[in-house]
Target: Na(+)/H(+) antiporter NhaA
Amino acid sequence: MALSWIRNPQVSAMLLLGAAILGLVVANTGLGPGLQELKGAHLPFPVFGLDLSAAHWVTDGLLVVFFFVVAVELRYEFTQGELNSLSKAAVPTIAALGGVALPALIYFNVAGADGAQGWPIPTATDIAFALGVLALFGKRLPPRVRALLLALAVIDDLIGILFIAVFFTESLSIPHLGAAAVGVAVFWLLGRVYRSRRGSVAFKALLVVVALVTWWLVAMSGIHATIAGVALGLVLSPAPAESGRVQLEPLSNGIVLPLFAFVSASVAIPQVPLGELSPVFWAIVIALPVGKLFGIGIAGLIGQAALRVPRESRVRVPELIGVGLLGGIGFTVSLLMNELAHRSTPELIVEGTLGVLAGSLISAVVGGTYIALLDRRYPSVDTGERAALDADEQRRRTDAE
Model:
C-alpha cells in the first residue's frame, strides 16, 4: 500500500512531535496573533446549527477519525487481541488503574481547589506517541513489553473516553442523544450486511452518511462529538471496522493527529518567571512523568503478584519501569481534556497545554533514554514472537481488503 509507511509508529510519533513543536514556535513569533485569530474564526453561517471555530472543527470534527480508529483497536484487543480474556486483561487493567489514580491524586494535591477541575488531564497515555518511542529505542526488547504498553494504553484511552463523556458534558439534549443512539443502531445494522455489499460504492457512501449524521446528532446533544467516533467504532462489525481502520489510519496518523497537535500546541508562552506559573502547570508536569511511573509500576507489580502470573511470563521490574515512563506521554487525549476542563478559563488552557507538552516531553526523553539503555541488555531478538505479531497485523489488513 502506497501509504503504508505512515502506519509506522516511529513515523507517527515524529509527525506528532514535529507538528507540536511547529505550533509552539509559530505561536511565539510574529505570526502568533494571526494564527490565534485564524483558530478562533467562524464560518459566515452555522452548519446545520453548529457554529464552531476553526480550532473546534479540528478538535470536535476531524479528531473523530482518530477516536474511531482507537475504538476499532479497542474492540479488536478485547475480542481477538491482547485483552481477549479476563486473565489477559487483568494485569494491564490493574496497571492502567494505578496509572490513572496516582497522577490524579498528585494533580489534586499540587493544583489545589482553583485547578481541581483539570484532574483527568494527566491520566491519559498517548498510544501513538508512546508506541512510537518504544519502537524507536526498544527494537530488541521482548514483545511482552510492547504488548503490555499497548494493552495499558488501550485501557487508558477507554478510561479517558469515559471521563470525556461523563465529566465534560455541560448540557444534554435528550432528543438529539436519542436520535444519535438510533444512528449508532443503523450503523451497526449496516455493518452486519457489509460482507454481501462490500463492493458497492453506494453502500460505503451510505455508511459515511450515517456516520456523519450520527456525529452531528452527538455534537448537538451536548456530549463531546468525539464520542460519536468511539460509539461507531465499537459497534461496527469486524470486517467493515478493519476495512475502515486500514483506510483511515493514514489519514489519522498523517493529517488528523499532526493538525490537532499543531492547533493544540500553538499557545503563546507566558512571559513570567517559572516560579509564577500557576499550580495547574506544575501539577501536570509532575503528575504525568512521576504519577504514571509509580502508578503503573507499583500497580503492575501488585497485579502480577496477586494474579500469580508465572515468573517466565511476567514483565520484569526494569521493563515495568520503562512502560511506566512511556505511560507519562499524555499528549493527544491530555491536550483534549485540558481544553475541555479549562474552556471557561483561557489562561489555564495555555498553562495546562504547556504543562502537558513539558510533562510529555520529560516522559518521552527520560523514557526513550531509559528504553535505549535497557535495550542493550537484550542481545538477541525473539524473531518468532515478532514474526507472529507482524503476521497478525498483516492478517488483519488482508481480512479488511
User: Anything to note?
Assistant: The chain has a mean pLDDT of 86. The chain has one domain: 4-168+224-400. The two ends are 11 Å apart (CA to CA). Residues 103 and 287 are 5 Å apart (CA to CA).
